[in-house]
Amino acid sequence: MAKVFIYPATSLVLSDLVERWGHEPLGAALAIRERIQTASLDSPPLQMTPEEPKKGLKWAAVEVPAGVRGRMALYGPMIEEADAAIIINDADLAFGCMGCSRTNELVMYLLRKRTDIPLLDIKYPSSEEEGIAFVASIKEFLAALGGGEDA
Amino acid sequence: MKEQPVRIAQLSCGPEHSGVQKEIYDAAAMVNAEMFFPDVTLADIRRSYDEFGLEARSGDLKLAIARAMALVEGSVEADAVFIATCFRCSEAAIVRNELRRYIHENSDLPVVSYSFTERTTSGTLLTRMEALTTIARRRALLAREKQVGTTLGVDSGSSTTKAVVMQDNEIIGTGWTPTIEVIKSAETAMESAFSEAGLKIGDMEAIGTTGYGRFLVGKNIGADLIQEELTVNSKGAVYLADRQHGEATVIDIGGMDNKAISVQDGIPGTFTMGGICAGASGRFLEMTAKRIGVDITELGAIAMKGNSKEVPMNSYCIVFGTQSLVNALAEGHSKEDVAAAACRSVAEQVFEQQLQEVDIKEPVIMVGGTSLIEGLVKEMGMLLQTDIVVPHHSQYIGSVGSALLSSGFIRGE
Question: Could you give the ipTM of this predicted complex?
């Protein structure tokens, strides 16, 4: 079983796929809903305190906005803990999205910098044909990490 | 029966992850308001994003745009709007500014925008929230244009405490003292005002308080109206400047923080309050006066004789500003030029940090103690390329606003 960081971290589809292959998804532990009634698209499930942006200083300097550092306090440890990662670029909002673009840039960079782990870095499909290839590539990636579907 | 809470729509990016959402909730609760997040769908976000035309990349900024459009279009109802994004995020600053302008131009909703850090507290947000709820809740009171009866207004500010007695729409007594002990200073200022008016506190038909010490002083003297300085000063400014109808911009450079308020018919539409550092406040001018060996009351006239462009000065930070001041004097610049440069620097800081957050509409009215520093008014006028209006009794603006508005309580409005 591998710990797989998923980006967007709120993608229920990715999270399900990773679990189905017997791996552990590392992400936001929440899914995007059609109606948004919270402060953020990816409101944290638990209330965060002003301590979190300070913890985030490990990944981003003090001149970086507090929201980025607070998010990094959540995602930074997961990126370090990950055995593998999947990045879906330019995903549709409904597939999964995160609130802060600056954090997204930093998260993706830190994942790409982890050359010691396997990384699937692909674009969100724009046609049915691309969609089939998209799912197949994710399945192939997860299978290569060990385990199997509904393992 | 308890008043219904004022519903404030929150459009934001980052407060939860910065750990300050609780502070926002707490500040709202203190003024019997409740924050809510306008309910929108992913489809609304896609549509709004295309229609609004601002290519923000952050999901939460796209969400804020959709929510702003829902408020303007009326699919979601609110009493006021609070826009908050992370300090130091340029993308958010652009969206925050454009949303504030969009809501101001397309609705009657009062709006305040704020950029927070993880150190933002409910105390910092309180005055802003109070102003939002006052505008939403007390429009009838804020519409008052004449003072009636005999009333007292006390402004317990961070640097000075001022008191004004008004009778039948005239100022008949004033008092002023530096703020040391809040209640004692208020008593001193009131004594002067009563003495000049030939009246005593028992003659007052209504009392209003404002400023940092408003709650303490208000409770102590049994005030009918205890109200934050943003709405009170706006009202006082347009009243004294005789610009109660139409648009105006009120600038109040205080001893500790500054206020810039865009006003329509005497009621604030958008406003900002704060300042990065005391270098953008009257405190820097006090330090300048002390360093060049003159009283603060003389600084303005001295600055008028100088040329601000002769001395490079940047008071973004009061420490660096003071360094520039000391260096300029050491290089042999005249105290007139240094005083003018200090005035220009404070005006620039207010212009760069705060006036970008409100739409400048003429007339521009400067109030508060610093409006008596002619050099500062001149530099601000040059920056804004307009003739600044400084009304009579401008240093008593908060007290006058309080005395005016509290007169609404005489007949229980």
Answer: 0.94
